[in-house]
Amino acid sequence: MTSRIDYSVWDHIEVSDDEDDTHPNIDTPSLFKWRHEARVERMDQFIKAGEDLEKGLAESKRKLTEAQKKTKNLSSSVTDDAKAELSKAQAEEKRLKKEERDWEKKLEDHRREEKKMPWSVDTLSKEGFSKSVMNVKPDVKEDTEEQKEQKHKTFVEKYEKEIKHFGMMKRWDDSQKYLSDNPHLVCEETANYLVIMCIDLEVEEKKALMEQVAHQTIVMQFVLELAKSLKVDPRGCFRQFFAKIKTADQQYQDAFNDELESFKGRVRGRAKIRIERAMKEYEEEERQKRLGPGGLDPAEVYESLPEEMQKCFDEKDIAMLQTVITKLDPTEAKVHMKRCIDSGLWVPNSRADEGDDKEEDATYEELNKEMGEQKIE
Questions:
Q1: Strands, E assignment, the chain
Q2: 217: CB partners within 8 A, 6+ apart
Q3: Distance CA 335, CA 330 (A)
């Protein structure tokens, strides 16, 4: 359930494929945006249903009041017509009383259902969660990406050690006390750094540490979302979160754990992508190192050669290669030899290096004649 928190800033983090210790543009929260939206939609529907019930009850009461007034007025009349109307009015009053009870029962059931709903960051931040008086955070102009980047870099350089220490904590009380002593850590920059830290640990296969830091990441996200919902500075409401989580029932604990598991799954997915990308980059670097003078990969060229030519290179047998070349179509032989030279599989002698034009225009017969004076690398 908790994955439905409004982590809207995670829209930019894929967790960015560029994430590393210096990447500042990771707005962690949108890891969970899609789940939050689904929950918010259900909450909105639930709230609307409650409002409809209250309106229905109010309308029922209004009609009953009018019916009771009408019954009272008719009861003082003694005419036959008035008695007939009175009978109808009394029946209508009875019907409306039953209707009022039905509305009251539906509203009572709705409120009972509301109490059973699992708690979340959104329900935590509803009015009545706490009577603490906090200064409302004024609306401020959102920072540009460049400003966010610089802010993140400066913050991490200054508080990296403290953030890591918080990430390794396990007990609620210890976390609360540490944030009380270091309230400057209650911010987006800490959350962003913890996300990157989790991915780094997963890439390094330090899975137990990753799970511990992931727990603290979700703690920070809950606090930030609570502050966002209340429109207050996060430093002014983190105690509310700890007060609630430490006394929460099983439903809320399950909700927190659900959020945590969802986040860890995202971290594992992102770490896998990072590893795959690193492997591709490494393979490409190795391939670039292998490239011959003509920019071709010798491994790829070798795989493209006829099997008979591959055997010649495997055995480093020039005579065998000459024999195979004579059996090939001259045009095909020239193409293969040119590719072997460009990839470095075949290293011409110095006479072949006199000029690119001469090499480019060499005929198959010249290459074949030249082979006795060339060596295979």
A1: 346-347, 375-376
A2: 28, 167, 191, 194, 195, 198, 263
A3: 9
Is residue 203 a contact partner of residue 271, using CB atoms and an 8 Å limit?
yes
DSSP conformation letters of 330-372 = HHHHHHHHHHHHHHTSEE--GGGGS-HHHHHT--HHHHHHHGG
Summarised one tens digit per residue, pLDDT across range 89-147 is 888 888 988 898 898 888 888 777 766 665 455 554 444 444 444 444 555 567 777 87
Q: In DSSP terms, which residues pair with 136 in a beta bridge?
A: 232
- Give this prediction's pTM: 0.47
Asked whether the beta carbons of 303 and 341 are under 8 A apart, the reply is no
* Distances in whole angstroms, Cα of residue 257 to Cα of each of 210, 218, 366: 15, 9, 75
Distance, in Å, from the CA atom of 193 to the CA atom of 187, rounded to the nearest integer, reads 10
Measured distance CA(140)–CA(137) in Å, rounded: 9
Where do we find the tokens 């009609």?
Answer: 63
pLDDT (0 to 100) of residue 39: 63
Which helix (H) or strand (E) segment holds residue 134: the answer is: none
Residues in the chain, pLDDT under 70: 1-42, 78, 114-141, 248-249, 349-377
Angstrom CA distances, 76 to 79, 92, 94, stand at 10, 18, 19
pLDDT digits (tens, 9 = 90+) for 5-43: 544 444 444 333 333 443 444 444 444 454 555 566 667
The residue type of 224 is L
CB of 224 closer than 8 Å to CB of 201: no
Average pLDDT, the chain: 75
3-state secondary structure string, 155-184? HHHHHHHHHHHHHCCCCHHHHHHHHHHCHH
Distance in angstroms (rounded) separating the CA atoms of residues 70 and 89: 7
The token duo for 212 is: 């511990």
Query: In DSSP terms, which residues pair with 346 in a beta bridge?
Result: 376
Length of the chain: 377
Place of tokens 């034009």: 357
